Amino acid sequence: MKKYLPIIKDAAVLMLVSTMFVTLCNMFFKSLKKTVDADPVVTAMLQNNIAAARELLGDKGLAGSGTRYPSLEAYQRARLELPDDFGRTPLMWTAYANISGEERMKKTDAERAPFAELFIKAGAGLDTRDKDGWTALMWASWSGLTSVAGKLADAGASLTLSDRQGNTALMLAAMRGNAGIVQLLMDKKIDCSAADKQGKKAADLAREGLASYPDKKQSYDKILELLGT
């Protein structure tokens, strides 16, 4: 038996290396597939190419869809509800931005607003949720895209829906120190007494944010004033 131990050992090492190689290849090709399969509508939005987005949602996009729809409007609604691996739709990606700096934020917000308007008019689901239970308004509130949030709220997006942790759009905006969005939501007469699953209200989350980001004191102070605390 001892004479076979080196052979068994070499076979085990070879199997381990082969398994690792196959796993890495699968990860690589899965990543590549995601890149290849990236939603062209989202890509057009990220490139700030609204003409391309309109084309993809227009007659040309319908003709190239490979599916029969009863109308262009039906195609547009279906097209804008296509989720990615995270359950996010083009409207959600339009409402998402993870950037710093007031000027960059204003610029991004101004660029995204026309896409939000286009997608909303084309029938995008305002209250569609991703896999974490977030809606487009929640993403805009978290991101700090005030104009986008305004278009969503004005179009009738729910102000009271909460995610899996019980966070509403107001709570997310307060947590992140996005005073403009808190103002917008308060102007809509939103209930600011709602609490998440830990019993924290928007004001509590704003205080926690202030403690963590004292450089944003002015924004958090404004939020706490708006919330009446």
Radius of gyration: 23 Å
Overall structural class, as computed from helix and strand content, comes to mainly alpha
SS strand fraction = under 5%
Q: Enumerate how many helices there are, as a single number.
A: 13
| Main sheet: strands, sense, barrel | none
Overall pLDDT metric = 88
Helix content: 55-70%
Distance between the termini: 78 Å
Number of DSSP-assigned strands: 0
Q: Provide the low-confidence segments as ranges.
A: 16-36
Q: What would you call the shape?
A: elongated
Order of helices and strands: HHHHHHHHHHHHH
Describe this structure as you would to a colleague.
This protein has 229 residues and is an all-alpha fold. The chain is 62% helix and 0% strand. The chain is built from 13 helices and no strands. α7 runs parallel beside α9. The longest helix has 32 residues. The radius of gyration is 23 Å and the shape is elongated. About 9% of the residues have low confidence.
